[in-house]
Amino acid sequence: MNHQTPQPDTQANVVAPSPIWAGLRGRCPHCGTGHLFAGFIEVAPACEVCGQDFSKADSGDGPVIFIIMLASLIVLGSMLVIDTVYSPPMWLQMVVWMPVMTGIVLGMMRPFKGVLISLQFHHKAGQARRSDDVSSPDQDGSA
Fold this sequence. Notes:
Number of helices: 3
Number of strands: 0
Strand content: under 5%
Largest sheet: none
Helix content: 40-55%
Radius of gyration: 22 Å
Order of helices and strands: HHH
């Protein structure tokens, strides 16, 4: 019998899942089965199923910008409607809307980050680097 150690699945016959669906579920953008996250928003080092390397996965501030804009629209719109209809005191508005805003932001953080990372893998995006950022040894600036 031939006992081989299992190798990560890198064959071309793997059908990649939808990047949106995989990201919303927090799944591997390559196989759709393994986990993308090791913690709440900490990206895992690699997929435990297919071995896809996540070490270069970085969504930056992208999810935060989208979430703050969307959550602000929801909360401020709701706050204005409630204020117009019921005219509650300001302290009550703060007691109600600050936890609501926090819940919306925290609830949307993981899915948005997962979608942006999955889209990076889907489009094979890499870190942008300008050609003049790379200096050759004879251009070290010491003249």
